[in-house]
Amino acid sequence: MLKVILKRILHTLPLLLAMTIVVFIIVDAMPGDELSAYINSLPEGTPRPSYEQISQMRSMLEFDKPWINRYLDWLSDVLSGNFGNSLYYRAPVVDIVPSLIWHTFMINSIALILTFLLSIPIGVRSAAHKNGFFDRFMTTSTLILVSLPSFFIGLYLMRLFAVKLGITPATGMHSVLSVVKGYESKQAEIIDVLHHMILPVMTLTLVELGTVSRYVRNAMVEVVHQDYIRTARSKGLKERVVIYRHAFRNALIPVISLFGILFPTLFVGNIFVEAIFSWPGIGLEFLAAVYRRDASMISMFILFFSIASILGNLLADILYGVADPRIKVE
For the range 19-22, what are the long-range contacts, defined as Cβ-Cβ under 8 Å and sequence gap of 24 or more? Predict the structure, then answer.
């Protein structure tokens, strides 16, 4: 297995190199630059730098160098762990991003666990009772969930639970009064954060529930009518054993593929959901970084998104061999 993992990592190295070129070109092609965006964001009445001063600052920031030279310098810094400084925060990017990733991971990990815990039984039961009442009801319900955009689901849940019922906070990660007065204990802070996580987690779970449950159902439908399933039933095995031990195990491969696709969302997050609920995660900060033309932050985020996607595919390849030893990952 270790040999397989090392071989897959070596295969991804050229892809990573090509990905860095694409990331740099995308960020470099953005209209304007972070220096112009920073100057334009200065409050009214603040003295503006002259054209000569702006040219001098651009030269100091090496914005006037050819793109290939800037790419090589950027790649060298990235390989050494230096992703540059954010002009907005005036701090190294690597000091800002870890906390954002953790905030995103908090809600997305719980949402992903809930999604699979709910989707697998729904998909399996729908496939086992194909064209029955439960299957038709869940097929219609999941189709509606798939059709609705994430921001609509988030806004509806906010209106229902935060505005009408008033049982959950609408936005943010902490209560304003608690932040001003301070928390009585660490436990009180954790409870407050968990309270604020309810709506984002519910939204993310509902967004993925429709897709994953339909994926599980379709994978199971192709398996439950196979000859070996009929043989297992003819032996007198319980239906639960037949479905979960024999059928579902052979339907795991498509589900693992879906997990590999969803794995990057643990760290990337949903930009719309984080923006709606003002959740201080990597998705919301990415949106703000694009608005501010913060090139260092944007390149860091895109590079991180790409690496997470590659790791998700690598994890799926490894899980293929674990789920079915007959598959030769090599």
Answer: 19/303, 19/306, 19/310, 20/75, 20/78, 20/303, 21/71
pLDDT at 141 over 60: yes
Closest residue by Cα to residue 42 from 93, 88, 86: 88
CA atoms of 156 and 163, how far apart (whole Å):
10
pTM given for the model: 0.79
What pLDDT score does 1 carry?
61
Round to whole Å and give the CA distance between 57 and 93: 20
In contact, 134 and 125? CB cutoff 8 Å? yes
Residue type, 94: V
- Alpha carbon distances (Å) from 73 to 16, 35, 84, 106, 185: 17, 19, 11, 34, 47
- Look up the CATH architecture of domain 96-323: Orthogonal Bundle (1.10)
Q: State both tokens at 144.
A: 């509606």
Q: What angle do CA 112, 116, 118 make, to 5 degrees?
A: 115
Whether residue 168 contacts residue 162, with contact meaning beta carbons closer than 8 Å, is answered with yes
For the chain, state the CA radius of gyration. 25
Give start and end residues of each alpha helix (H) in 46-175.
51-60, 67-79, 93-128, 133-147, 150-157
The continuous run of DSSP H or E covering 239 comes out as helix 239-241
Angle at CA of residue 213, ends 212 and 215, nearest 5°: 65
Task: Map out the domains of the chain as residue ranges.
Answer: 2-93, 96-323
Please give the mean pLDDT across all residues of the chain: 82
Q: Is 86 helix (H, G, I), strand (E, B) or coil?
A: strand
